[in-house]
Amino acid sequence: MNPAALIAELLALPQATLLAEAGALRDQAAVPFLTYSRKVFIPLTQLCRDVCHYCTFATAPRHLSAAYLSGEQVMAIARAGAAAGCKEALFTTGDKPELRYAAARAALQALGHETTIDYVVESAAQVVAETGLLPHINAGVLSRADYEKLRPVSASMGMMLESTARRLCEKGGPHHGSPDKDPAVRLASIAEAGRQSIPFTTGILIGIGETRAERLEALVAIADLHRQHGHIQEVIVQNFRAKAGTKMENAAEPDEADLLWTIAAARIILGASVAVQSPPNLNPGRTVAMVQAGLSDFGGISPITIDHVNPEAPWPEIEALERECAAAGRPLIERLTIYPAFAGQPDRWLDPVMRKAVVRLSEADGLARAQDWSPGLDVPAPGTALHPLGTGASGGFVRRDVDLALAGAVRGDSLSPGAIATMLTARGAEAAEIVAAADQLRRDTCGDSVTYVVNRNINYTNICTFSCTFCAFSKTSAKGGFRDKPYNLSMAEIGERASEAWARGATEICLQGGIHPSYTGETYRDVVRAVKQAQPAMHVHAFSPLEISQGASTLGMAVADYLLMLKDEGLGSLPGTAAEILDDEVRAKICPDKLSRAEWLGIIRTAHQVGLKTTATMMFGHLEAPIHQARHLADIRALQLETGGITEFVPLPFVHMQSPVYMRGHARKGPTWRETVLLHAVARIALHRAIDSIQVSWVKMGHAGAAACLGAGCNDLGGILMNESISRAAGAAHGQEMSIDTLNEIAALAGRDLVRRTTLYQPVGANVSPS
Predict the structure, then answer these.
(1) What 3-state DSSP class applies to 738?
(2) In percent, how much of the chain has pLDDT > 70?
């Protein structure tokens, strides 16, 4: 449909029909929540060369104590925002004040700059470097050169189009005397932002004298720019508020019906993928109605600074807005100033410096990290075994795709990666329902017993020639961690440790290490021999697929033949580690010289074919997205349905603290609490009727965290892990060993009994406490 016909149709449509169509269109995006950005407002200068007749933000030098905020003032605001949990620093300025005011030119000169934009660049760079807040810059009409300066220090930018009605710039109009409000000038600036690949916010201001048709023309112009460049993140529908002391102080404000009509029209013109927002502080009591009209976002909300553009309208309390959104049937979720679709394509939309800042504040789906909790940190768990992700009382609906996936899982269907990924993005009531469904499947499959094995870890060397960017265990080079020195255990020491473990009641020795440059396939055989000679009855659970590949290649043997050789020596099973994420796109970034996805799956398949059981793992929460996690789960299920050789699935949340990839600014701070609990729950659902046991790692999660995952579909606590050292090397605070008494306490937190098992899930009988 051509623009003129679309505008005519929208103008003729009954309002009730328009609102219903807009709400349905918004729901097509399958986003079951509403968003906002937690921000601080930094009004770098309130000087402006324009004289908009409704504005109280812009003022004259005589009304200001200083033309610009000082660097100290900027940083004080930013630090206060960071302390209050903000993630966005909204920089606002007037348009080119130095072209109008001598005071602005003098102030800039004293600050060492010629233009306002240059000072914005300096200020934003300092804020990013010292606080980690993400600058969103609203500095008016900008040129290509301006954008090139600002892009390295901003995660997003914005400028209101306001209107394309040129007549509003004529004498008597609200934009008369404001050269930067010329619609052609503003459209050209927005277009240039698109050419510079800048995630952009724009919008319209309604009620300043424009007609409804002119509003639609402006929205059509924005949609056209987005079709050309793909850079419009969100469009604001801002209703005019009459302000005392302005030329329009007595002008009529648009009523609620007019606002809702415009929100709905914006949604229909812009489609499902572009966010439509309206400021909540300008519209108290209208939340439910705006959501029903197609609204998806509430913009930036500050817990500490006022809205300097609308100082008469205080921000709503975020908790109060959460309750209003719940009444509208959706939870309110914090986002970053850059939207997920843009954050997920950083090579296109972000400067490298900003990319690091964004990833530090992101969840896997590109939304804002909701809590300070990270795996391995000694901080309280945000959830409990009874309510790992809350009760869902904060509101929200369950998507039809999620309902269908849950029903399919109960039947034993193999879910598609897309369906699994959808569940991994759940929040609010939907996430709580997924957790509850997972725990019911656990109960139906495993009963209420929590299992564990008495074992000892022997990491026989931390010297490794591989270059996994996440690894802090390897001590071959400067990429290593800081807790341990390089070592290489002798076979005698391995045998002694096996005997010590047997004396303390262990039935399993778990053996893994770095890929030592001098190790051959004979070395790994000698490791198995050392254990079996010391303790013939000990189960040897040893060697990742990478170690198996290394051993076989050094001897020139086929993997199957090499595994049979190790089995003859006493190898009992393999840990399915070194899987990380089974997606070659991710592996190319975190472990480029490691086994490919197909090679890892092939070695595990071969182990099953020669009669060796394995576990399967996933290390998550670093660079990957939900779809990568989903593909991993789908691959594990498909392999298990083929071979039946996997005893358990073990999600391993990424411990970030000393990890090189995190320290370089390329990885997240591990998964969030929601992501971690949900991954365990979704694993139970996706692997139902394929793998019965889902294990939670107390090493990564701590006591309370492990108990919470027992309430999210997990049935196993792994082993007591005497001498676990890999997670400790990465910075985990949780111990190197767990007593059976403490495992009992963890199970009790979930209201469950603890039962000892063997490596291959046979009962042992009475618990034997290590001494």
Answers:
(1) coil
(2) 94
